[in-house]
Specification:
The complex is a heterotrimer of chains A (332), B (290) and C (257). Chain B is mainly α and 290 residues long. Helices cover 74% and strands 3% of the residues of chain B. In chain B, strand 1 and strand 2 form a beta hairpin. Chain C contains 9 helices and 10 strands. The chains are: A mainly alpha (332), B mainly alpha (290), C alpha/beta (257). Chains in contact: A-B, A-C. Chain B: One of its GO terms (biological process) is amino acid transport.
């Protein structure tokens, strides 16, 4: 516990002092990681905790991103306006799509989410008057809170960091709450949950809406960060990327999606300076993870820790609470 | 009236093309339980290989039609043996994710081999003309695609309903254990089914290439439409897949003609409506549990 | 008298395609009754339970619970109304601990399941955990409380299967072969626990072990070929020629298995 607390404090301190340590280029990289980590965390609620593998999460990212972009351009770049409007739009979109999707399970769920997200993509791509069509929307003003302008990357970084910590904390509370335990129960055995008296469809819808809403928040932040949005951010490849982040990081853990986002963003930055075949490299790495480390970086880390120190201490820890699937004490 | 007739032929040929492609996907999904997200990639390989063959053989489309689907089938055989067979114990979901990763890899591989430019294959000379029916000219190639689609549908129906292999496949669709009980080597069934699935994808790729062209990310467009057909038609039903592909072909083609900016939107909307009214697809088995 | 009928099954039929599983089954269950349901494999016993819990919708007929027609009520709503089942094959949350399995039941029972901004731990929910630990202790599983279910022995998992049903505080409990696959000692233990269930609890029990079912039931229903063959006093049923015919063959088969 102490170790875990220490690691947590160290990580937060590192994040807080990042602007003094890193150059602007790397600071922006950290900002991007945090935004995509929020996106991955939101999908993890669905994939990792409720056991519903979605291949259409970019839909809500896109809804939030475009909502934010349009409002910032047409009405006001006020941060709270764009953020909450994006959240609301994504919640509405995910509630409507979710009603259909949570009726089915397994691959049908995967196919449906994919199809609905492509539906939103085709709308974004084809309705040039609202969304700018294939050109996307550019020149989006940076967010404002009162007179405070977040065009300064350091200010913006702190804004994102604050939101990230809030969302991470909030989600880890949710997944350990009685409600979150119901979601985990659905992942493990939906039939049993029903016979315990749970209206599982409603819980799945709730998970879908939470995931969608936060996906919209991530989209909104991403728009503000890039001051540009294009249909490719709504395309299924975006859904694929975030799913890969969750699975490579370690689904069903809190820290996993964050590590996954960091891994992918850093790798892409390194690789893209050498080759354009980014998809092939990520595809191969993904396949390797699925075959050899299905529990992702988190599982890999645990495995390494175990083989490094076979001391009694570790076995005592793993025996204490054996819900390895969803406890997030990776750092011990 | 002329335009409607022409569009009808276009849409039916497009629908039957989707049928050819989706049949492979549906077969693999039904028997192996694996939703092959690289199925579109196999289709794309078929199209690109046929491009290379026609270029190097003095525009011999027929050679491509024979060789390319076999080449794709061999590719999918290799995929089954190297990637899927050793990983059956991981569960279907992991295998689906594997095919997803594979789709990424194939995407860049084809871009590396054939480049990212839009390519095209000329129509085979013997099918490039038009034929006049009911005082109206129709492109022969489109009619040929329709004929091929119908023949294939008949053939598949015959195999599934009237032959021993078809009986095994039907048994496999409803009950995996049944296959074993029949004393059939299930490993062999999986391999053969995956081979056939690959062949159908490649075949679809070849006949689609002259009309749809070749371009990067063509595989995902096709994959997604095939998924829509699969959902609408319902699992494990050739008739359902047939009806759904024709429906999608017709709806998509006419929408692109009438309201181009909404064409895909309408297709997915149609899928949503079908799912509300008939959650198991038009003719499929039960997937929604109450 | 009508007031005491808690569950009424009215001419329920069930067929899958051309296969008729249940034919016009009617049964009135009084509050507090212990009804044993026996019959050979394929007689439709589990299908009958599935219809009572709402896991299956009958092809014909109706089901009344406390006078209300519940034929079209969803399964989870029936659970919340007090009709609770256990499964013939262990159907647990295998990757979770025994405690977590039980907590999911108890948090539903105490309507805490929608709390989403408070961690579920012993400090914040002392009563919930106390109740869970008490139940685990009563069932002799205290050493296993924090084990993942799939690591437990079959008999222990079977116990949890029943425990999860009882922990809801049902009004009608449907036990589907509670002692299937258990050793004699484990069976005795379960029978003992079942004897101590509250007297006003209505129990329907499907069981192949005739010893167990005659010990627990005060009324026996024999299902045969989709219909009720006999419905009556256990002693009467025990001595019925037809039952012996069905079961002697069966027990011999079981002995060979």
């Amino acid at each position: 516990m102490n170790k875990k607390g220490f690691a947590l404090i160290a990580a937060v301190m590192l994040l807080i002092f990042s602007p003094f340590i890193f150059s602007l280029f790397y600071l922006n990289l950290v900002t991007e990681i945090l935004i995509l980590a929020i996106f991955a965390l939101s999908l993890n609620i669905l994939v990792g905790y409720t056991g519903l593998v979605s291949l259409g999460h970019a839909a809500f990212f896109g809804v939030g991103a475009y909502m934010s972009a349009i409002l910032a351009r047409e009405i006001s770049p006020n941060f709270f306006l764009t953020l909450f409007a994006s959240l609301a739009a994504a919640i509405i979109a995910s509630a409507i799509i979710g009603i259909f999707c949570v009726k089915v399970s397994g691959f049908y769920f995967l196919m449906l989410t994919l199809a609905f997200s492509q539906m939103i993509y085709s709308f974004v791509h084809q309705s040039t008057t609202i969304t700018g069509g294939s050109n996307g929307l550019s020149g989006i003003p940076s967010p404002l809170i009162g007179s405070l302008d977040f065009s300064n990357p350091v200010y913006f970084y702190y804004l994102i960091l604050l939101l990230f910590i809030l969302i991470y904390g909030g989600l880890s509370l949710i997944v350990h709450s009685p409600f979150g335990q119901v979601l985990i129960g659905i992942r493990e055995n939906e039939t049993r949950l029903k016979s315990m008296g749970y209206h599982t469809t409603l819980y799945k819808l709730a998970a879908f809406v939470i995931a969608g809403g936060l996906g919209g928040v991530a989209g909104s932040l991403y728009t503000s960060f890039n001051s540009f949005i294009s249909p490719s951010d709504v395309y299924w490849t975006m859904s694929g990327s975030v799913l890969i982040m969750v699975l490579i990081g370690g689904s069903g853990t809190m820290i996993g999606p964050v590590l996954g986002a960091a891994f992918i963003v850093i790798l892409e930055t390194i690789v893209s300076s050498y080759t354009t075949m980014w998809m092939m490299i990520i595809g191969i790495i993904f396949i390797l993870f699925v075959v050899f480390f299905p529990k992702g970086i988190v599982g890999l880390g645990k495995l390494l820790l175990q083989s490094f120190s076979k001391s009694n201490k570790l076995s005592a820890i793993s025996g204490k609470k054996s819900n390895a699937l969803y406890n997030n004490d990776v750092k011990n | 009236m002329d335009i409607i007739g022409a569009q009808l032929v276009n849409s039916i040929s497009y629908g039957l093309l989707l049928f050819v492609i989706t049949c492979g996907l549906s077969l693999v999904f039904g028997i192996l339980g694996v939703l092959n997200l690289a199925h579109g990639s196999l289709y794309m390989i078929g199209a690109y290989v046929s491009y290379s063959i026609t270029v190097h053989s003095g525009q011999n489309f027929w050679l491509a039609l024979i060789i390319a689907p076999l080449a794709v089938a061999v590719c999918s055989l290799i995929i089954e043996m190297i990637l899927l067979r050793p990983t059956y114990q991981l569960g279907h979901l992991s295998q689906v994710l594997l095919t997803f990763g594979l789709a990424y890899v194939i995407h860049d591989m084809t871009a590396a081999i054939w480049g990212s430019d839009v390519l095209s294959i000329p129509l085979p000379q013997s099918l490039s003309g038009t034929v006049t029916l009911f005082n109206q000219a129709f492109p022969v190639y489109r009619l040929a695609v329709i004929a091929i689609g119908l023949i294939l549908a008949g053939l598949l129906w015959f195999i599934q309903e009237k032959t021993r292999w078809g009986a095994i496949i039907r048994a496999g669709l409803s009950d995996k254990e049944m296959i074993c009980a029949l004393g059939v080597n299930i490993q062999l069934v999986f391999t053969v089914v995956f081979f056939i699935g690959g062949y159908l994808a490649g075949f679809g790729g070849v006949i689609a290439a002259p009309i749809l062209g070749l371009y990067p990310s063509m595989e995902f467009q096709t994959l997604i439409l095939a998924l829509v057909v699969l959902v609408i038609g319902g699992l494990g039903s050739i008739a359902g897949t047939f009806v759904a592909s024709l429906t999608i072909g017709i709806v998509e083609t006419f929408c692109r003609f009438l309201v181009p900016e909404l064409s895909l939107f309408v297709v997915f909307g149609l899928m949503a409506v079908v799912l509300i009214v008939k959650p198991n697809g038009l003719l499929g088995r039960q997937v929604v549990k109450h | 008298m009508e007031n005491h009928v808690i569950l009424k099954i009215d001419r329920v039929g069930m067929h899958f395609g051309g296969l008729e599983i249940l034919k016009d089954v009617s049964l009135e269950v009084k509050k507090g009754e212990r009804i044993g349901i026996i019959g050979p494999n394929g007689a439709g016993k589990t299908t009958f339970f599935n219809i009572l819990t709402g896991d299956l919708k009958p092809s014909s007929g109706s089901i009344y619970y406390k006078g209300e027609n519940i034929t079209n009520v969803a399964n989870f709503k029936r659970t919340n109304a007090g009709i609770v089942r256990t499964f013939q094959r262990n159907n647990l949350l295998n990757e979770l601990t025994v405690l977590d399995n039980l907590l999911l039941v108890l948090q539903r029972k105490h309507h805490l399941q929608n709390v989403w901004f408070k961690k579920r731990n012993e400090k914040k929910y002392p009563k919930l955990f106390e109740e869970a630990n008490q139940l685990i202790k009563t069932w002799g599983l205290e050493k296993r409380a924090n084990e993942i279910v799939k690591k437990l022995s079959y008999g222990e998992q079977r116990q949890i299967e029943i425990l999860l049903g009882i922990a809801i505080n049902p009004q009608v409990l449907l036990l589907d072969e509670p002692t299937a696959g258990m050793s004699q000692a484990e069976t005795d233990y379960i029978v003992d626990l079942l004897h101590n269930l509250p007297k006003d609890l209505t129990v329907l029990i499907i069981e192949h072990d005739l010893e167990v079912v005659f010990g627990l039931a005060d009324r026996m229903v024999v299902l045969y070929d989709g219909g009720i063959l006999i419905d009556g006093d256990p002693n009467e049923v025990r001595n019925d020629r037809r039952v012996n015919e069905i079961y002697i063959g069966k027990e011999e088969a079981a002995a060979h298995a």
